[in-house]
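ZP: hey, is the P-hydroxybenzoic acid complex queued? I don't see it on the tracker
AM: it wasn't, my bad. submitting now with these inputs:
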Amino acid sequence: MHKRLLLKAGALALTLAGLLAPAQAEDTLKIGLVLPMTGPFASTGKQIDAAVKLYLAQNGNTVAGRKVEVILKDDGGVADATRRLSQELVVNDKVVALAGYGLTPLAFATAPIATQSKTPMVVMAAATSSVTERSPYIVRTSFTLPQVTIGVAEWANKNKLKKFVTLVSDYGPGIDAEKTFKERVQLNGGQVVAELRVPVANPDFAPFLQRVRDAQPEALFVFVPSGVGSAFMKQFAERGFDKAGIRLIATGDLVDDDILNGMGDVALGVISSHHYSAAHPSAMNKKFVEAFGKANGGMRPNFFAVSGYDGMRVIMDGLKASKGAGGDALLAAMKGQVFESPRGQVLIDAQTRDIVQDVYVRKVERVGGQLWNVEFDVQKAVKDPGKTAK
Ligand code: PHB
C-alpha cells in the first residue's frame, strides 16, 4: 500500500515536471552564436567565444527575470554553413538575437535571414564597411577597415613617407583598406606605386614580396585578416625585409595580439593603427586582460575578443531595456548605446548601427619580456569613413 502511494506520488511528480519543463524552456532567452571554431580562422571563434563566456560569468546570465542561454555553432568559416546554422537557430531555436560572424562573406550570407526574420544580428568580427548596409537588423561591435586605416596613413605622412606599396588580402576588408590608404596618402601628396592583392586562403607571400622589393617603396602597407599575420611575418623575415630599409606599416590585424608574441623580433617597430591593443592602459582594460587570461590558460585577448565582450553587453543591456522582447524592440534598444569598453569609450551609432570608437596608433615594443602594441597616438570617436567615401 505504502509502496504504491509512493509510486503514485513519483508518477505525479514526473508528470508535473513534464508539464513545467516546456514552460521553463520557453522562458529562456536564447542567443545564437555562429563562429569559425575550426579551420584557418578558428582563432577568431576561440577569442570571441571566450569573451562572451567571460562577460556572462562576470555579469550574470539572467535578464528581465529570464535565463539567457548562448547556443554556440561552428561554421568552420564556410558561408553555406553559416547561413544554414543561422537559419536553424532562428526557426528551430527561436533565438532573440544572432551573433558572431567571423568573416565578411559569412556576415553577407546571413544578412537576408536577419532581415526576413527581423532578428537583430550582432556582428562581432566581419569588418568590411558595407556589412551593416546588408540588413537593417545588423549591429556591429567590431570595427571597419576604413575606420582603422586612416590613422596609419596619417602617421606615415607625419613621418615624411611618400612612396608606398600596398599588400592586402583579396576580398572585402582588404579592398576597403587598400582604397582608404591610397586615397589618404594621395591627399597628403604621397604615392602608391604598386597595389598587390593576395589570395585569402593559404597565401604564399613570396612572389608578392619579390614585387615589393622591385618597387622599392619607403613603406609597405599590409592588411591580412586576424590569424594570417604569422605566415606573413615569417616570409617577410626569411627574405630579409626587416633589414631592407622598407618600413612595415599595417592595420592592427597584422600584429594581432593573439599571435604577436610568437612572431619574434621581426615584429619589433611595426607601426599600426587599430581600435584595440591588449596593452591599452586603462584600469578597465587591465582588469579585462587579467580576467580573460585567468579564465583561458593565460591567453591574451585580441581585438575580436573585445568585440565579443562588448557585443554580449550590447545584447544583454538591449534585452534589459526591451524587457526580454526580441525583434524591433531589441534592435531599438541596441541603437545609441554608449559605454566604456576595454578599448575605450564607444557608441553604437543609431543611424548606421556601426560602432564609433577611438583609433590608436601603436608600435610593437618589447615590454617585460613580451611583445605588445604600445599606443602612442589617438584619433578620438572615429566613425566609419567608408560609408561616406562610397
Ligand atoms: C573580415 O573578413 O571581415 C575580417 C576578418 C579578419 C580581420 C578583419 C576583417 O582581421
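AM: back. The mean pLDDT is 94.
ZP: great, adding it to the tracker
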